[in-house]
Amino acid sequence: MAAEINRFGQPVGPPVSEWQGAPFPEPMVLAGWGCRVEPLDLARHEAGLWQAFGEDDGRLWTYLNSGPFAGRGEWQAWLESMAAARDPQFYAIVEAASGRALGLASFLRIDPQAGSIEVGWLHFAPALRRTRLATAAMALMMARAFGLGYRRYEWKCNALNLPSRQAALRLGFTFEGVFRQARVDKGRSRDTAWFSVIDGEWPALRACFERWLDEANFDGAGRQRLSLSALTAAARGY
């Protein structure tokens, strides 16, 4: 996109007419494609998440700055503090048919004035990883953010977390670079990889999600006919 030139001969960004910011995302249930993304509630979700995460030997906590937990009491205290937070705003990912809570996700670094919001704190139990349900949850959260008028949707992860980086690209995010020594997590230096989707890209990505999540895209054994990676790469012109 060619930059505009102001009266001083300086390049400036395109105007954003009548921008008033976006509203703060008040917690609400998001539903679709057999998935519910529900505001995190200790009474409703704790036991199911404890059981689902218990199927992991601890490796799925490696790149998060909390967990694994020494016992259920410690886990409950952490989950209670997360459920009470406004930013990050935590959700449980629930399989609609069974009512099982199988994962966590959040909106965070919420900046309504800038129109920027991040999806993060993603922690998927083994039963949720690499499933249609997991993709549905991510599609629902992205749709919520852009539906509220946010201009920028971010994904950040430990730069060494290759599965997270691959997941971001599969979902249609664009890699923006690495912030070196951005944080210290669990006593270790962390470089952070940044990804984003902007509002102008959302309509094409929404069509990709709808096409991939459609039941017609899966055979009788549940195998995909078209990959989401291929659809989103085409939408971005890669």
List keywords for this structure.
238 residues; alpha+beta; 8-stranded mixed sheet; globular; 6 helices; two-stranded antiparallel ribbon
Give the structure's gist in a few sentences.
With 238 residues, the chain is an alpha+beta fold.
Give an account of the 3D structure.
The chain is α+β, with helices and mostly antiparallel strands and about 240 residues long. Helices cover about 30% and strands about 30% of the residues. It is built from six helices and ten strands. It has helices at about 40-55, 70-85, 130-145, 160-170, 200-215, 230-235, and strands at about 5, 10, 30, 35-40, 90-95, 100-110, 115-125, 150-160, 175-185, 190-200. An eight-stranded mixed β-sheet has the order 3-4-5-6-7-8-10-9, sandwiched between helices. A two-stranded antiparallel ribbon has the order 1-2. Strand 9 (about 175-185) and strand 10 form a beta hairpin. Helix 3 runs antiparallel to helix 5 (about 200-215) and helix 5 (about 200-215) runs antiparallel to helix 6. The longest helix is centred in the middle third of the chain and has 16 residues, at about 130-145. The two termini are about 15 Å apart. The model has no long low-confidence stretch (mean pLDDT about 95).
